[in-house]
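Field log, afternoon session.

UNIT: design team B
ACTIVITY: writing a sequence onto a fixed backbone
BACKBONE:
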C-alpha cells in the first residue's frame, strides 16, 4: 500500500510536469497536470495516441466543475450529485482557459471525480486537475493493476502508485451533455437506466456530430491474439470444432468447465465480469494460443458495457451486433 511519502513524491513529479501511473476505481490512468500543455503532450507521446483525441480531466471535488465547464446544464449537477465520486464522465462545454491539448481542440471537455481513495488523495494534495487517459498504449487493453501499467511503460513512467486491483475494471460511462439531449458516448458500469432514473431520457450511441471519443473507435482494447466472439449457443460446438481440427485455442466465458478448454471464467454477473475482463484478456494473450474464443454475454442492457468492450477487442471477428 501507499505511504504518505509515495503520495508526496507523486505530487512533486506532477508539479514538475511529469506523468504518473494513478489508480482509479475504473482502470489505471496515466495522469499529468491538466493545465500544463507540455505535460499533457507527454501523455500523448507516451501512449502513442493521436493528438486530436481528447482526455478526461479528473477533479478532486465536484465543486471544481465550474472552473472547467461553462453553461453547465441542471442535469449535469444532478448527475454529479448522484454519481460523483464515481465511474461517470460528463462531457460539457469547456470553460475559457481549458487548453486545446486536453480537449483535442474541441469546444467540450470531459470531467470526472474518481472514487478511488488514492486518486482522491493525490488530487487533493496536488490541488489541481489531472488529465488522465487509461494507462495503456493506444488501442491496447486498459490496465487494472499497477503491474499492468509497469508492463506497458516500464522505465518511461517511473512512478506508478499501487492502489490494488481496480474495483470496476472497465472505463467510466461517458455522457455528453453538450448537445440538445443527454447521450451516452461510451457505456460503463453506470447503466442507462440509472442515468434515466436521475434525469429522464438518455440517448445512446455517438452521432456523427457527437464529440469524438477515442474509446469509441471500432478497434480498441485489443490483445495481440485474434479473438473470436461467438454466440452462447455456438460456444461449446466452436471449441469442439477447434479441438477436432487440432487448433490450440483458449477461451473466455461467464462460466467455464475446465474439461472443455484452457481458459478463464470471467464471472456470472456483469460487475464480476467487468472487474476481471482486462486482466483475463492480458492473461489469455500471454498464453499465445492461435485464438481466444469468447462467449458473447446476453444482449440485455446490464451487459451493454461488457459487450461493448468485447466487440472492440474482437474487431475483425464475426460479430452479432452491439447491445442496447
Ligand atoms: O474510467 C475512465 O474514464 C478512465 C480513468 C483513468 O478515469 N479514463 C479513460 O480515459 O478511459 P481514455 O482517455 O482512455 O478514454 C477517455 C474517453 C475517450 O474516449 C475520449 O475521447 C473521451 O473520453 N473524451 C474525453 N473528453 C471528451 C470530450 N470533450 N468529448 C468527447 N469525448 C471525450
Ligand atoms: Mg483508453
Amino acid at each position: 500500500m501507499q505511504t504518505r511519502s509515495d503520495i508526496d513524491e507523486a505530487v512533486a513529479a506532477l508539479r514538475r510536469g511529469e506523468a504518473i501511473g494513478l489508480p482509479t476505481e475504473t482502470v489505471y490512468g496515466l495522469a499529468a497536470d491538466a493545465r500544463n500543455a507540455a505535460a499533457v503532450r507527454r501523455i500523448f507521446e507516451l501512449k502513442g495516441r493521436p493528438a486530436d483525441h481528447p482526455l478526461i480531466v479528473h477533479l478532486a471535488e465536484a465543486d471544481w466543475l465550474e472552473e472547467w465547464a461553462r453553461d453547465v446544464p441542471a442535469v449535469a449537477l444532478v448527475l454529479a450529485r448522484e454519481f460523483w465520486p464515481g465511474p461517470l464522465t460528463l462531457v460539457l462545454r469547456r470553460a475559457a482557459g481549458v487548453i486545446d491539448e486536453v480537449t483535442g481542440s474541441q469546444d467540450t471537455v470531459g470531467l470526472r471525480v474518481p472514487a478511488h481513495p488514492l486518486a482522491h488523495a493525490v488530487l487533493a494534495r496536488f490541488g489541481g486537475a489531472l488529465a488522465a487517459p487509461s494507462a495503456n498504449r493506444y488501442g491496447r487493453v486498459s490496465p487494472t493493476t499497477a503491474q499492468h501499467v509497469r508492463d506497458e511503460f516500464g522505465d518511461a513512467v517511473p512512478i506508478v502508485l499501487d492502489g490494488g486491483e481496480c474495483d470496476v475494471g472497465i472505463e467510466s460511462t461517458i455522457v455528453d451533455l453538450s448537445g440538445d439531449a443527454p447521450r451516452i458516448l461510451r457505456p460503463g458500469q453506470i447503466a442507462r437506466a440509472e442515468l434515466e432514473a436521475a434525469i429522464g431520457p438518455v440517448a445512446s450511441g455517438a452521432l456523427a456530430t457527437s464529440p469524438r471519443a477515442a474509446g469509441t473507435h471500432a478497434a480498441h482494447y485489443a490483445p495481440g491474439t485474434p479473438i473470436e466472439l461467438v454466440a452462447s449457443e455456438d460456444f461449446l460446438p466452436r471449441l469442439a470444432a477447434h479441438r477436432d481440427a487440432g487448433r490450440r485455442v483458449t477461451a473466455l466465458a461467464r462460466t467455464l468447465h475446465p474439461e472443455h478448454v484452457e481458459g478463464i471464467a470471467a464471472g456470472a454477473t456483469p460487475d464480476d465480469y467487468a472487474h476481471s475482463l482486462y486482466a483475463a484478456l492480458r492473461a489469455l494473450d500471454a498464453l499465445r494460443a492461435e485464438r481466444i474464443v469468447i462467449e458473447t454475454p446476453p444482449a440485455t442492457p446490464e451487459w451493454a458495457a461488457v459487450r461493448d468492450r468485447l466487440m472492440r477487442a474482437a474487431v475483425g471477428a464475426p460479430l452479432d451486433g452491439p447491445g442496447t
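LOG NOTE: The radius of gyration is 20 Å.
NEXT ACTIVITY: expression trials, pending approval
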